[in-house]
Amino acid sequence: MKKVIIASTSTVFGGTYLDYLLPTLAEHFATVSNLIFIPFARPGGITHEEYTEKIKPVFQQLNINVKGIHEFENPIEAITNAEAIFTGGGNTFVLVDMLYKYNLLDAIQHAVENGVPYLGTSAGSNICGLTMGTTNDMPIVYPPSFRTLGLVSFNLNPHYLDPIEGLEHMGETRETRIKEFHHYNPQSVLGLREGSWLEVVDSKITLKGNLSARLFQQGKAPVELETGSDLSDLR
Amino acid sequence: MKKVIIASTSTVFGGTYLDYLLPTLAEHFATVSNLIFIPFARPGGITHEEYTEKIKPVFQQLNINVKGIHEFENPIEAITNAEAIFTGGGNTFVLVDMLYKYNLLDAIQHAVENGVPYLGTSAGSNICGLTMGTTNDMPIVYPPSFRTLGLVSFNLNPHYLDPIEGLEHMGETRETRIKEFHHYNPQSVLGLREGSWLEVVDSKITLKGNLSARLFQQGKAPVELETGSDLSDLR
């Protein structure tokens, strides 16, 4: 049974790392004792070791042992034998570049399709879409492709940000950027606000959390989707 | 004589298109009757024709005739014979992809080195740096490379944005993103606030406009540079 959680962010304002998701994760990883963490996105440039150490205490609360993918001699084999996978946030370009470098995209995709529960936050959620083409990150490295896992049949925009009232900055709003995306790409884009996540159980996709999400489709006006919405048929 | 203006934005808050730069452009393009516009960045997805029509009235005020690069049968030849070049803002990925598609990067670089005055705004300024790796834009298409014109020996971050006081959004600040860039890239990055521009005359690079700019260098704390600063030796 495919089990995926695609979260907009690891941390909501005023909260601690993953605290708002902890009850959900207890259920999501109920049968899991060992989890493989993918620290490749390196938020703020921290090392793989530092990042892995940072997340360990969170999973200790769930009695789950964490090992970083960088600790394995054969990362593909590690993913193939994984009980659970968590890809953390940071820079999506760096993350995707590393996943290609270690040839891990197909391995993760197969593992998840075979029922290994997956958690993604931020950059780790971006890669659940068809491409990383709707990331907010800076292109600090050049990955071999923008194609990602395709665990859902659309694209994600984590940390979705509404236009800020009164801001005198002339850079594009998030909505303008996604509109530009649709001049070149057909797939829907889901803007996930911080505190929202998608729950994927087999072919069923549900919007969770307290907030609505913003759906962008080519040639259509954007719409707000209430929490609890069924997104299984979204393409 | 190399003559380049690298502007953070085409439009400052409350202003009209290029109005704040008009006296500067009158001087920069003093001997120019015909200008080639590169509309490839397509802000908001507008067509090359629409974008070119939009900028014509501005240059009419300077008695300069504008033709879009898309109107030429041989774009490389057009650039080689150009009197002046202006690359407008929009999406940097789309712009760079098109410049590679038409094999124009070297042609523009040679023209500018040979004295053809160049103006860039926003995405058109990003490409003046060594790479487009510090753009703020969304990666809506996959260009063949991130290498750009290298008219200056560092990278640009146009529309530089200071952290917004009181914002509860957890996405990375611009400063964090540029710090992450320096984990993978050695070159300096100049954060150009809206209303600032660089003036390049031969090997002399000067910060212009009313605002300071923020300089990021690998392994150093960022510093503020006052307007009028000489950046000729920046690498």
Which labels suit this protein?
seven-stranded mixed beta sheet; 11 strands; alpha/beta; Class_I_gatase-like (chains A, B); Peptidase_S51 (chains A, B); 235 residues; Dipeptidase PepE (chains A, B); 7 helices; Rossmann fold; four-stranded mixed beta sheet; homodimer; globular
Kindly describe this structure.
The structure is a homodimer of 235-residue chains. Chain A has 235 residues and is α/β, with parallel strands linked by helices. Chain A has one domain (3-225): 3-Layer(aba) Sandwich (Rossmann fold). The first copy, chain A, is 24% helix and 19% strand. Chain A contains seven helices and eleven strands. Chain A has helices at residues 22-28, 48-60, 75-80, 92-101, 105-113, 123-126, 174-181; strands at 3-7, 34-38, 65-68, 85-87, 118-121, 155-157, 189-191, 197-201, 204-208, 213-216, 223-225. In chain A, the strands form two sheets. A seven-stranded mixed beta sheet of chain A has the order 3-2-4-5-1-8-9, sandwiched between helices. In chain A, strands 6-7-10-11 form a four-stranded mixed beta sheet, covered by helices on one side. In chain A, strand 8 and strand 9 (204-208) form a beta hairpin. The radius of gyration of chain A is 17 Å and the shape is globular. The model of chain A has no long low-confidence stretch (mean pLDDT 97). The interface between A and B is large, with 46 and 46 residues.
Any idea what the CATH architecture of chain A is? Answer: 3-Layer(aba) Sandwich
- What is the CA-CA span between the terminal residues of chain A? 21 Å
- Our Rg estimate of chain A from Cα atoms comes to 17 Å
Q: Roughly what fraction of the amino acids of chain A lie in strands?
A: 15-25%
Write down the domain tally of chain A: 1
Question: Outline of chain A, from the CA principal axes?
Answer: globular
Total helices of chain A: the number is 7
Proportion in helices of chain A:
10-25%
Largest sheet of chain A: 7 strands, mixed
List low-confidence stretches of chain A. none
Q: Largest interface, counted with CB-CB under 8 A?
A: A-B, 46 and 46 residues
Question: Given the helix and strand composition of chain A, which structural class is it?
Answer: alpha/beta
Order of helices and strands of chain A: EHEHEHEHHEHEHEEEEE
Keywords (chains A, B): Dipeptidase, Hydrolase, Protease, Serine protease
Family (chains A, B): Belongs to the peptidase S51 family.
GO molecular function (chains A, B): dipeptidase activity
Protein name (chains A, B): Dipeptidase PepE
